[in-house]
Amino acid sequence: MNPKISIILSTYNEAYFIEKTLNAIFDNLKEVEVIIVDDSSTDDTCKKIKNFNDPRIKLFVRKRRGLASAFLLGLINSKGEIIGWFDSNMPELFSKAPQMLSELEQNELVILSRYVPGGKDERSHLRVLSSKILNLICKIILGNGIKDYTSSIFLMKREKLELAVPICYGHGEFFIEFLFKLKKNGAKISELPYTHPRDLEGMSKTAPNIIRFFKLGFDYIVRILITRIRKN
User: Fold this and answer.
1) Residue 99's CB: how many other CB atoms inside 10 A?
2) Directed axis angle between helix 45-52 and helix 18-28, to 10°?
């Protein structure tokens, strides 16, 4: 198979969602491969993925290392002309994929955005507030007209990696720098509205307690500052 589209997913204990997510991908996208990087799930995530027995799925299981490095591993092992990064626990968003592909015909990267007209965030008040604060900081320090720097749900043309290579360390903050560099170097970027659903599992797995939550927020702010001063 020579896929046109490569969808990268990272998973950790996503047994509740993964079958719905994979079915949503295959229902909405053709000529697609799915690269899944699993950080040693302790539930039936990997078993359910393997039960698909589908050659369009590539599964990499590793010791837990983080979101950014998972994206990099997926990117290295992707072959598509178009690269996508989605949350593995939001299968409903793949209904947006055909519209994103259509929008990609006139752009180099398309983001799903909570902060353009029609967008919405239904998570907890704390997570919504923190997201808005981080995006306000991005707007003040980085500018560039991007509305949702922290979405990280996107499709992009692979050839445009020549404009910016993601520096993959940390968590989702790597996407802020990647997005900023793409726009700075002339990439045409479009934002389409989406509704971020409420967290069915309460606090994010990434920030399972309040200390980790604020530590992650601090890491994001540091990365925003680094993005501003880094020359390349």
Assistant:
1) 13
2) 30
